[in-house]
Amino acid sequence: MTNPIEHPLVRAHLDAVTRYTAPLPEERRRELLADLREHIEVTLAEHDPTDEAAVRAVLDQLGSPRRIADAALQEEGLPRPEPEASGRTKLTLLFAVLPFPLLLVPAVGPALALAAAVIAATRVSRSQVWTRRQKKQAALLLLAPVLTTPLAGAVFAALPGGLTPVNLLAACAVGFSPVLVAAALLSRSAARLRGAAATG
């Protein structure tokens, strides 16, 4: 590892700053992160980039991600974001994974599944737990079943048995798997933010 920015401690530090500065205008946040990266690269240029003690010392000198973010937010006159309660995050992720099982409900299932998907997308987009980049990634994964389910169905239909009820359920399960990936990634990110807030 020759680039100090790739060090796990540096990545974690910058990721935390990114999350804490979610309310900042995108351009201002990019400038802040670029300044931090440049400072870290210049300061660590004379050290072994694998030297964890040196990396920690530079990050300690910069200050905690919370303090860096608070200063930037204060300059812009913006409030400090607080991690939402665990229960609220879980409710958002529950709505995200509900559409597939709801599709199996006779008659009203598709309407309920669509409603759950819309609620999930709205809650994710309005939450301050995730960065804009994470929200975009989540949106792609949440929308992926629209493409992956028909593709999986076509694959199963080409099998010798054709598209039997069992194969249809399997195709739906395969198509829905990106949603589970999105939920897992969002859950992990929210948990990291709460952990950082507890120690920051």
Structural description of this entry:
This protein is an all-alpha fold. The chain is built from 10 helices and no strands. The protein has helices at 8-20, 26-44, 52-62, 65-76, 86-97, 99-103, 109-126, 132-143, 145-157, 165-199. The longest helix has 35 residues, at 165-199. The protein is elongated. The mean pLDDT is 82.
Number of helices: 10
What ranges have pLDDT less than 50 throughout 5 or more consecutive residues?
none
Distance between the ends: 28 Å
- C-alpha Rg (nearest Å): 21 Å
- Strand count: 0
The computed structural class is mainly alpha
Biggest β-sheet strands, sense, barrel: none
The helix/strand series, from N terminus to C terminus, equals: HHHHHHHHHH
Residue share in helix: over 70%
What percent strand? under 5%
Shape: elongated
- Mean pLDDT over the residues: 82
Short description:
The chain has helices at residues 8-20, 26-44, 52-62, 65-76, 86-97, 99-103, 109-126, 132-143, 145-157, 165-199.
Quickly list its features.
0% strand; elongated
Reconstruct the topology from this structure.
Layout: H1 8-20, H2 26-44, H3 52-62, H4 65-76, H5 86-97, H6 99-103, H7 109-126, H8 132-143, H9 145-157, H10 165-199
